[in-house]
Amino acid sequence: MTTKRSRSLSSAAADSNAPQNGIASLLSPKAQGKRRVTTSSPPPHVGAPPNRLIIAIDLDSFYVSASRLLDPSLIGQPVGVKQKGLLATCSYEARALGVRKLSTVRDALRRCPALILVDGEDLTWYRRLSAKVWRLVRGVVGPWDGKVEKLGLDELFVDVTEMVDAHIRGREEGKTREDAGRVFFQVAPDSEPEAGFWYDTLGKPIGHVLPLDSHASSSEDTPSSTYRSRLILTTHLALHLRNLIHSQIGLTTSAGIAHNKVLAKLVSSRHKPAKQTLFLPRSAEDVVRFLDDEADVRAIMGFGGAIVSKMRESLGATSSEAAANDDASPPLSVSLARKAFPLAHLTTLFGPRLGIRLHGLLRGLDDEEVAPTPLYPLQISIEDTYRGLKGQEVVAEQMRLLAASLLRRLEGELMGSGAGMLSSEPGKAEQMEKQDDRGKWQRHDMPLFLPGEQGNITGKEAPISDQKVIVRCYRERESDPSESSTWQRYPLTVRLSIRHGWGKRTSRSTAMPLDIFDVRTLSRRERAERLAGVLMGLLLRGGPGQGQGQGQISGEALLGGEGLNLINIAALNLATRRPAAQPLRTFFDAGGGGAARQKRDSVDMETLLQLPEDIRREVAAQYGIVLEEQEAVVGAEQESRLDTGCEEDEDDALWDDLPPIPAMDPSSPANIASSSLVCSHCGVAEAPWLQHDHARWPIYGVPAVLLGSATASEGSGA
DNA sequence: CTGGGGTCCT
DNA sequence: AGGACCC
Fold first, then answer.
1. Helix, strand or coil for residue A565?
2. Which residue minimizes Cα–C1' distance to B2?
3. Which of A559, A575, A591 is the last residue of a domain?
4. Burial of A210 per CB tally in 10 Å (0-12, 13-18, 19+)
5. Strand B: which of residues 605-664 in chain A lie with Cβ below 7 A?
6. Residue A87 domain-assigned?
7. Of residues A142 and A419, which shows the higher confidence score?
8. Which of A204-213, A240-249, A625-634, A698-707 has the lowest mean pLDDT?
9. Do A649 and A674 belong to one domain?
10. Residue A153 CA, nucleotide B5 C1', distance (Å)
11. Is residue A183 part of a domain?
12. pLDDT tens digit string along A447-500?
């Protein structure tokens, strides 16, 4: 359908300013000549003249603006939003006083002692506001097959090609309202004929235009359906969306309009708060000239630190430039990058796929489609940073807090009534739009927690740079899921990532314990306890290289060296339906040797484990399941059991109801043994936090006796 | 002295 | 599981 449309448009373009109109000439000769040889089907626009209409929208100093909605006294003030020791962002007033985004708090306060600090470590409010903006925009362009992609909390990409062309078609068919040189762009379906905006048929763009001489030279453009006039029309639509975001939500935005994402994003940052910029090149040369103004190739989305560092290194080797791998090394300009890195060079350095992409990016070529952000994310994670967190009890306590925090988020974002509270509610967005553009801002309904007498601000005193500094902190009231709300998605996997000292992150994942979904029968505390237990198991599991689970990593993680600097817990693999039970048997089924294995498929382990103890024991006895809690296991017996290997045994692993994570010294074998349970499958005793994993992959589980000896080397002896 | 998140690719 | 990218 794209081809049909673009044919009619390019025939319209052919009459007036064909050579300068630059549709074909926007492509490099290479790209024009090349026909797709790949077997995978390319996006419709690949290899075709640029035809898409992309808007990049950027919420201005988002965290600051969002905080100002909660606390208007911040308006007009130099404000910095801090996360731990860093300024996530700061207000333009603060920037005028020399404060830089991403500077340390200490540095910012040195430059601007009057800086007002806001705590931005809890993202709840920002996340909600961000989703609101996304839904608003999607409510407008969605009905026209428009696509909206969220990038982080404060950026959107919007593909309005279909929407604009639908309008142009309607206009060609005389279906639009016109009045004294103006046309009405009806933005909602026919049920809402008043929603939309008037624009001037003179074809003047809204906002800034780049390259600077671009529009002036083509001022004789007729407002016909040329590609250029479609881009110009898009600036009106962009303003409309920005006006909506401002009037309905109260946030100002910057925007860029171009024929692809990278260029739209690049120009969106050229004029920054509350302005928009159109990129309107006449030729491919215009694009390259524009990019060559960019002194730092990192300004192009896709050129990150690792890539540029590698490029600079390669440059130093061939051109005797003394650019080491420093952070302080001078930026690599786009023009230098383009001249110094022919395609063959880039593919050598980065492989065919990435190399080709980077080569195109240096010339402004970008095929990346606007990928509609799905209703539910692919993963939900929380994290916190520490200064050398160590000790079993300390770590376990943090794990409990983080687990509870993750559960709170999962409940908030994955539960709802069938329609989905996070869902677009297309009708609602249209209603909002139907209201006048200059209407009052929407009420922001964050249920605020009011600890202070003076209002909704919690003052937190924090010692920063030797002074006590007040950090304003806005908190949301706790709430439980409503009665009617049910899980819309079920994360099947949980992943624990940690950073040890200042090293790199490492991560392990395992099955999500399914009882975290039982919000009716278990308190959040109980479910958090369960999840934290599983996480402690992951912490102790160590890497695959640890084979039998010597517990080296775990010992160090809990007790040794620098301690933990970061803990991140992620819920991923979000399923639509709740699985029946924990997949305990996969390992054994794959093992193949289970012909004689006795089947107990009729027993739902999860259900069994949740029964009251007396009933549970009764049922277990009936099915021959060992629910025995064991005081201690003799070391020698364990060793021999371990040698035989769990996979040869016949029974499924099963543990008794899990006790809380014991607050105890893990280096004491006695403690471990006393709280261990014996695997009914292979007979190995495991500490509580290892049982979950052991049940899935017995060979990775760390037998208590080994754990004891491993930690004993650092701890209080065997 | 370096946040608290996300996505995709290998 | 890790590494790159994005904000």
1. strand
2. A86
3. A575
4. buried
5. none
6. yes
7. A142
8. A625-634
9. yes
10. 9
11. no
12. 444 333 233 445 555 555 555 788 999 887 788 888 899 999 999 999 999 999
Task: Compute how many other C-beta atoms are within 10 angstroms of the C-beta atom of residue A180.
Answer: 6
pLDDT attached to residue A644? 24
A298: nearest nucleotide, CA–C1' criterion: C5
Read off the pLDDT of residues A14-62 as tens digits, 9 standing for 90 and up.
323 322 333 333 333 333 333 333 445 566 666 667 899 999 999 999 9
Task: Dump pLDDT digits (tens) for A84-118.
Answer: 999 999 999 999 999 999 999 999 999 999 999 99
Handedness of CA A87, A91, A94, A100 (dihedral sign): positive
A411 and A509 inside one domain: yes
pLDDT of residue A543: 53
Contact between residue A706 and residue A555 where contact means Cβ atoms under 8 Å apart:
no
Alpha-carbon span A613 to A660, nearest angstrom = 16
Which helix (H) or strand (E) is A83 found in, with range? Answer: strand A79-83
Q: Would you mind telling me the total number of residues written for chain A in this entry?
A: 718
d(C-alpha A390, C-alpha A144), whole Å: 54
Tell me the per-residue pLDDT of A230-270, one tens digit each, with 9 for 90 and over: 999 999 999 999 999 999 999 999 999 999 999 999 999 99
Q: Which of residues 404-443 of A touch strand B (CB under 7 A)?
A: none
Mean pLDDT of A422-446: 38
Boundary of a domain, candidates A575, A610, A633: A575
Residue A387 parent element (H or E):
strand A379-389
Burial class (CB in 10 A: 0-12, 13-18, 19+), A478: exposed
Tell me which of A134 and A429 has the higher pLDDT: A134
Asked if residue A390 and residue A510 are part of one domain, the reply reads yes
CA atoms within 13 A on the CB side of A306: 4
| A356 and A502 assigned to the same domain | no
Nucleotide closest in space to A377 (CA vs C1'): B6
**Domain identity same for A557 and A608:** no
Bridging pattern class, strands A147-151 and A86-90: unpaired
CATH number for the domain including A497? 3.30.1490.100
Strand B and A705 CB separated by under 7 Å: no
Burial A138-149 (b: 16+ CB within 10 A, else e): bbbbbbbebbbb
Residues A532 and A620 in one domain: no
Distance of alpha carbon A438 from its chain centroid, rounded?
A: 33
Residue A562 resides in a domain: yes
Confidence of residue A646 (pLDDT cuts 50, 70, 90): very low
Residues 365-404 of A with CB under 7 A from strand B: 371, 377-385
Nucleotide nearest A507, CA–C1', reads C1
Confidence of residue A132 (pLDDT cuts 50, 70, 90): very high
CA distances from A65 to A268, A347, A710 (A): 18, 42, 52
**A685, A641 Cβ separation under 8 angstroms:** no
- What angle, 0 to 180 degrees and rounded to 10, lies between the N-to-C axes of helices A688-696 and A524-541? 70
* Domain of residue A645, residue span: 601-712
Quote the CA–CA distance of A700 and A714 in Å, as a whole number: 22
Residue A309 lies in a domain: yes
A507 and A628 in a single domain? The answer is no
**Angle A290-A358-A235 (CA atoms, 0-180°, nearest 5)?**
45
Positions on chain C within 7 A of a protein C-beta:
1-7
- Give the phi and the psi of residue A58 in degrees, each rounded to 5: -125, 120
A265 is near strand C: CB distance < 7 Å: yes
Cα A26 to Cα A214: distance, rounded to the nearest angstrom: 14
Number of structural domains found in chain A: 4
A317-352 residue pLDDT tens: 655 444 444 456 789 999 999 999 999 999 999 999
Q: What is the pTM of this model?
A: 0.77
Q: Are residues A509 and A539 in the same domain?
A: yes
Tokens of A282: 């006449």
Query: Residue A499 CA to C1 C1' — how many Å?
Result: 14
